[in-house]
Amino acid sequence: MAKDAITARDKDYSKWYLDIVEAAGLSENSGVKGCMVIKPHGFAIWELIQGALDARIKATGHSNAYFPLLIPKSYIMKEAEHVEGFAPELAEVTHAGGEKLEESYYVRPTSETIIGATYSKWVRSWRDLPILINQWANVMRWEMRTRPFLRTTEFLWQEGHTVHATEAEAEAETLMILHDVYTDVVERVMAIPVYKGLKTDKEKFAGALRTYAIEAMMQDGKALQAGTSHNLGQNFSKSFDIKYQSQENTEEYAWTTSWGVSTRLIGALIMCHSDDDGLVLPPAVAPIQVVVVPIYRSDEEKAKVMETIARLTAEWAGKFRFKVDDRDYENFGFKVSEWEVKGVPVRVEIGPKDIEKNSAAVARRDRPGKAGKSFVDQAGLTEHIESLLAEIQQALYDRAKEFRDTHTYTAETYDEFKTQVQLGFVRAYFDGDRKDEDRIQDETKSTVRCIPFDQPDVEGKCFLTGRSTKRVCIFAKSY
Q1: What's the confidence (pLDDT) of residue 469?
Q2: Phi and psi at residue 43, in whole multiples of 5°?
Q3: Which fold has domain 288-391?
Q4: Radius of gyration, alpha carbons of the chain
Q5: Contact, 436 vs 467, CB < 8 A?
Q6: Which end of the chain, N or C, is less surrounded by CB atoms within 10 Å?
Q7: Stated pTM of the model
Q8: CA-to-CA distance for 117 and 75, rounded, in angstroms?
Q9: Non-local CB neighbours of 127 within 8 Å, separated by 6+ positions
């Protein structure tokens, strides 16, 4: 799909998103309903996100392991709230080898139960704690309405599962992951600003004591939950008998956590940064950060241009990820369009005239057209590109943050709220209960995205009930 076939955002945002996925070669539908084929360009982006997360997870003392895809039905049934939360999404395996199984299995929707059963065998003493494990895996949740990356029946993710001696240790773990891993990667690597906070009981993970989340704003003003971290309390420890002998020689139930982010982060990248010309990628997650497009009309010109390009790119290895597009069977215009659609942050063009002037044309993807193009001396090209990549990374974050901030409103009345929440996020005093949240969702299709950590020192009036409260919540419609 050419970039001129991409639907404009302001015409049909949903179609624009699907067009970007197709045109940029990120994924395509498969023969399995609701499951996608992640194509090489899409998977390369995921690998870069995965690498950034994995490095931070390991740096905080966690190790990777792997647990089975199939979970015994009896395990799932042990935690009542967990079962109720996931029941509509479970895929059950009842037959194998041509025979009906004595006990059926569920295809992993999340791994708290099977990992909990494993931890009950690993934990005996306070000396065994903490257990700090992460796994990279696929999961399956039977979705009725799917959209590539954002909501698919099968998706890829990481899920951390840890065990601690005390509630304080589990709480510290939960918050550390949210701040030092998830927020750091999403903001610094993906250039997406987030709000951080606590989920309400209505919105928390099924079976959790507390759930914390990071929430990002997409270009249509909707929220996308970019990561969650759960303090599971002792719920799963009691269900799976995860107990330890304390230093005081008493038997205690352990405290557990779980946390995860998934390939929906690629959907966040698309919807936060891209434009009507195609994908826009922050350099940190761009599989190709710099593409060089040669310009020539004859074999003689080609030889000179390619010799110049070879000389200039000789020092680029290890500095940034680059590609020289030397395809003879595609014309210059096609190449430029293709790399724009794929979101390559920097494009370098070199032809005979550039050789004569000892220069190179450099275009930045985040500023399409003439506004983003300049001519740079070849002698300083490498340093210019290094600086430009850092500048683009920061510029994309700043642009996204400005958009989010200008589309975050403050409501004092329910009438104001109902108008504003159709345009973006709403930050408002709120002391309502679950019934009030249900009412708001039914009437506006919005939910409490989080109770942000930065709460006010003074009381205000709840926009719905009129009662005084110090609690501020962030509401939005969401994906």
Answers
A1: 98
A2: -70, -35
A3: Rossmann fold (3.40.50)
A4: 25
A5: no
A6: N
A7: 0.95
A8: 8
A9: none
